[in-house]
Amino acid sequence: IYLSEHAWRDLEDNLRNQDKDEQRRAKEERKNGDGTAAQPSLLDLQSSRPGSNLLVPPMVPGGPYGDEQRSFYSEDARSFYSEDEYYQEDHYSGGYNDTESAYGSEVFAPSGSTFRELEMRKMLNGDSKGDGVEEEPEIPRKTTRGRKQWVALTWFLTWWIPGPFLRWCGGMKRPDVRMAWREKVALCFVILALSGVVIFFIAVFGKLICPYQNVFSWNELQAHDKKDYAYTAIRGEVFDLTNLVPGHWPNEVISTSALFAYAGKDSTVLFPIQVSALCDGTTGSVDDAVTLDTHVNLTDPNAAYHDFRYFTSDYRPDWYWNQMVKMRKLYRIGFMGYDPKDLQNQAKTNMASSGISNPSWAILNNDIYDLSAYLAGGLIPRVPTGQQVPANLNMNFMDSRIVDLFKTFPYQDITKSFEALNLDSILKERQLVCLRNLFFIGKTDNRNSTVCQFSTYLLLIISVMLCAVILFKFLAALQLGGRREPEEYDKFIICQVPCYTESEESLRKTIDSLSVLRYDDKRKLLFLIADGMLIGSGNDRPTPRIVLDILGVDPNVDPEPLSFESLGDGMAQHNMAKVYSGLYECSGHVVPYIVVVKVGKPTERQKPGNRGKRDSQMILMRFLNKVHFNSEMTPMELEIFHQIKNVIGVNPSFYEFVLMVDADTEIMPDSLNRMVSCFVHDAKIIGLCGETMISNEKDTWVTMIQVYEYYISHHLAKAFESLFGSVTCLPGCFCMYRIRSATKNQPLLISNQMIQDYSENIVETLHMKNLLHLGEDRYLTTLILKHFPNYKTKFTPDAACKTNAPDRWPVLLSQRRRWINSTVHNLLELMFLPQLCGFCCFSMRFVVILDLLGTLVMPAIVVYLGFLIYSIAVSPTAIPFWSVITLAGVYGLQALIFIIRRKWEHVGWMIVYLLAIPVFSFAIPLYSFWHFDDFSWGNTRVVVGEKGKKLHLASDEGKFDPKSIPRKKWTDYEQELWEVGSHESHDSRGTAHTGYTHESYRSHRSLAPAGAGPGSTAGSIYNDAASYYSGNGGNSGRSRSRSPAPMAAYDNQSIRQQSFTNVPIVSDPRMSRPYSDMMSQRGSVFMNRTPSEIDLAYANMPPGMGGGSRAGSMMPPGGSVMDAYYASGPGSSASGDGAILPTDEEILQEIRRILSTSDLMSITKKQVRDELSAFFGVDMSSRREFVNSCIEQVLQGKL
């Protein structure tokens, strides 16, 4: 049933009103009741779990007393609640056994009994929203100034798209979806504008401020004097003589060599002109007898072949015009050009040789005209032989006012003066024709002007900077010399592996590769997090079951799910997980492991427990943060602490580095030690990554086009960023972080700032969703650079791993969409970081801006490259010099990298990559930009049951209260375990449903030798001298209820005094080989402990080794150590009338223990007092008021 928000709110309001009425009636009934209700059943104290103190879920009903009828109307039962509170009777079903998990089953979620005491505490604290209880108002989140500006820009760019259109036609019902779509469109507009700016700057800007000119200076013309590229000039126009000569006619009259003699020269004298055919003068016609010759004969002997003027025997008035039209169309390549600054000197130099000492040059509309011959008396009438020159012949065909301009303003621009002349438009047009045909000698050459020089040098500077970046990247990658073998280190390492829906083959490959790393097995810990009870596509079991099967965990081992704070919306922040631990054996290596399986709350049905990779990372980061600061921990975190410290035998504070690996990655055997070597040699390194290679490179064409990109992105991009100590992306598939500083013990990866920023739950904007939902690995690096600018993130090519690249187009498209979109938003974050290495253009910020711009304009650059190739193919002479040099530098230097490294196979991969440029740099980016508002992981990870559906699940109802998850410091928790040791004698009444019996409680306890109490001193060291894993088994999994703990030595003296050689070793069916065998092979594990932390691990052996109710206790012959321990406990106090009453602090401590281990739905205050009397051996009736007061304040959270 689908309800609108309005209808849902109406129903909710009605239900709330009904609840209030029922509460009032129930309160009245309680006041008027006669108190004759049946007395509630006594709580079975023998089956309680001392010491958990609200940190472990209560026992599920189902034991001997689990089904007894309970009444809530006795005086003691009612005394738990205030007058204004309403107590509802609730019956919870029993637990379950998750031995055969299947996707979609409800058994993925833990039993509902886990939340009974939490819900009860919430009611007792007044959170039930009864009468008179007001909900604390939520403080609105302040919108930043940048966000306001971006929203304003978004609406400015998308105001023309109506909201109803998006709802009706786009199917976007929710306002956040519509806003994300608008932001996506706005981003696409911004990208389009940036692409336009880049293309404009590259292809248009230079031509706009300095238009291209096909002009040649005298030096350039003279340089073209070879037959292969011969040019010649005729009246200011330059022609291609190389192409013209083959078509010249007749060849038998003028030889080819004679024609090429004019290459690189001015050939104007070869073409005499008929003035009357080229100029209409001032009146509309010019007499045929008018010729334009100077008093010196400039006629070349070969000019006779082109002389068809009026006075010759072969008069062809239009021959010159027709020939020039033909040559202009076929052979003209430009014009002669003259720099305006050098015009005067150039004119004097050229014309002095012609006998004209005062040439008259002027510029008109950027065209240069020479009236020197006209003014120097070159107007001579010539008629055919035998004819007379006409009388009154007007030789002046140019207007005198125009001629005066040339005389008045020689060598200057007369354009404005010419336009100012009072001339008839027809006359002005005639005069311009005469100037163009008779006196034109070239155009102004502005290539050396200030404007053109600015554009040229600006483009040159940018090209040089880009080439410099490419060169520096090349030099950074050019690391000659062989790899040196580092020494073997002994730092404690956590290998974190988040698992989602990977196949069994991938998971096994990853786990095995980590296990066989050439590093001390005792000093590395496999920390696997299964992100929800999910079945991946192609799998037949849930991912957690696959992981546990690989590690050899018995399917019957079923630890109880424990609460922890997760990432999510609303109540989804409350998550639950199961914790496993043990030793994994592979190829002679025995490695400890921790497996955290997120199973979710009982109410979760869709992907129970799944909260994403970032949440999986936060489990370890939060845990280490709380270990470092000794902060309060959730039940799951306390269990992890217990498993690492008491089962594996290493204090969690010993770990210095975290190796983050994806579940489909294979690490090379020497990589870990090489990475540790980098950290050791440079204490300023906070993050490090190695090279990621493709393991399935030849599977399909999709994998083939990625090989070269993977190689060059590491050895060029990351190697260059590593020079600055600021690698902007440490890939989550293979990277390593320093947990705390080497000298000052300053928290780094686990600092409060990192935890706070990386655990951001309010992810509402498009920007934050791309950061935290798609690119969490890259964002983690961004936060590292933000909070620790004085530290370095580096790349080392010596460490390597192999991973499976997407082998299908849809998967590649989905992966690159996530990568590109997260890259864009992370680079935006990096741009505004206050402290980045370098200054101005020589800084990491400049490189980040270049990377961001390059990412956004990739499609535009591909379009420009296509245009460039087309232009070169069509016109080989018009080659953009600097563009070609830049491209040659990019790919030429890349080729040198793998050639020098002798990676010859990358020659072929480079060719494949170049052919795939349209795919990588055009198609995929365009797809990614248009899917900025898609925050899913697409086809990269497919879960069985989804069937491609897009599910928009509303967040869990209600507001999450962090206080709903109990928390306690490990030191306090462990101290309490010591203080309640006397209750070990209680018989276990746990059932198969509880998953946490009296025996399982002992797996929490640490037993000290006789007399070792909180004030005693015992030391131990972590070395290979002497340490013991109690119990049997090598490749076995341990749960909370059956976790064998390592036996730690106290000191050398205690080891000598106590011999365990006579202790029998009994095989546990869950274990595959004895620990004793393992100890003989792998050495021992010690650690420093305070007196309260000393554990002898007697209580965790299988039944039969210790006997009695202490199931699993292992002790020296005679059991003197355990007997002495129990004899020294507080429970040994004698009872009697003369017994001394306990102190208030002792009473309060025991009340806390009783309430934390009891079912709050059934226990009464009287039962608590009886338990106190039994514990202290005295009658507590005299302290009744004090006890009742303490109970109420503990339940209300005041104590």
TrEMBL record:
Q: Where is the signal peptide?
A: none
Task: Report the transmembrane regions from the record.
Answer: 150-169, 185-206, 454-476, 852-873, 879-900, 907-930
Classification via SUPFAM superfamilies: Cytochrome b5-like heme/steroid binding domain, DEK C-terminal domain, Nucleotide-diphospho-sugar transferases
- Does the UniProt entry include the keyword Hydrolase? no
One GO cellular component term noted in the UniProt record for this chain: cell septum
What Gene Ontology terms describe what this protein does at the molecular function level?
Answer: chitin synthase activity
Q: Which residues form the Cytochrome b5 heme-binding domain?
A: 213-271
Cell compartments where the protein resides: Cell membrane
Give positions of region: Disordered.
14-69
Topology class, membrane: Multi-pass membrane protein
Biological process annotations from GO: chitin biosynthetic process; fungal-type cell wall organization
Note the CDD domains from the entry: Chitin_synth_C
Q: Does the keyword Membrane apply?
A: yes
Q: Which InterPro entries match?
A: Chitin_synth (IPR004835), Cyt_B5-like_heme/steroid-bd (IPR001199), Cyt_B5-like_heme/steroid_sf (IPR036400), DEK_C (IPR014876), Nucleotide-diphossugar_trans (IPR029044)
Q: What's the superkingdom here? A: Eukaryota
| Compositional bias per record (Basic and acidic residues), positions renumbered to this chain | 14-33
- Enzyme class label: transferase
What PROSITE patterns does this protein map onto?
CYTOCHROME_B5_2, DEK_C
Q: Which keywords does UniProt give here? A: Cell membrane, Glycoprotein, Glycosyltransferase, Membrane, Transferase, Transmembrane, Transmembrane helix
Q: What is its EC number?
A: 2.4.1.16
Q: Which residues form the DEK-C domain?
A: 1141-1196
Protein name, please? chitin synthase
**Taxonomy-wise, where does this protein's organism fall, top ranks first?**
Eukaryota, Fungi, Fungi incertae sedis, Mucoromycota, Mucoromycotina
